[in-house]
Amino acid sequence: MLAEIEEFVNWVRRRNPQARTWKDYSYDLKQFAALTGDRAPGEVTFREVDQFVSSQVERSFKPATVNRRLAAILAFFTFLADDDPSLVCPVLPHRHYLREQQRLPRPVQEDILDRFFASIETSSPNGIRDRAMFVLMLRCGLRISEVANLRLADLFLKEAAPRLIVGGKSARQRSVYLSPQAERALRAYLAIRPTTAKDFVFLSYQLDGLSTTAIHKRLVRYREQAEVHLTAHGLRHSFANDLICAGAPVTSIQQLLGHRWLETTQIYVQANDQTVQADFYAACERIEGWTVQQSSTVQLRWTQQESTQ
Asked: Catalytic site residue 259?
């Protein structure tokens, strides 16, 4: 099966060489092959998938990770079925897929953001660069991979509304507009950016592009200095949450985040639905005993009772 996996991974890589999908597929499928052994794909049954799922759970992998690896196996067998229509995929979604806990996105608290950015020393070129990277995540909703892959040709700073062209998931491009804060941070970095033939916006000390791992290490360093916890995706959550609170239409937020499906963006609405919030507090005013005045009266009664005891 290893030869077929290599063929499949090479096909995925040819389709979209810029994405890291082929790397993920290669890693996931080789884990599956390590359990089944180098057998012909047609010899693999749902029993081996049972064992694979069990082993992943025993190793404490999250349901989302296990399901992603099952999706890789499913894509692999779908690819092979083009040559052999009789090939049966051993992944049975109703049997193998794990129930995922739905977690609402959590924006980063303002005090944590203040401490994090205060830890970035902007008197150095690296600090100016790093501040620009993380401000783009916070104020423009960029993913860490989108920051790493940003090129000079993607910047349109001379337009009336400065913007970026960002390459997101599945090679889908979108326009991202710069807030005044993001524009200032980006221009400050571009003013001191070294001259090089490489066209990556953010450069390493070797005058080459920064990897996602390198950017993540910079984030970890600053959050440890600030003694806070946040993630790159948490900055993106904060971007979406701020737009929701400002009343931006969910369809516009979908475009800015680069979500393919509106349902993905609506999760942010569920996390901070202003209509539900307004309805709740309006109801509080109408329900006897829920108002601040009634609560104060109850507290006064408890105080009086304690004083007489």
From this structure: yes
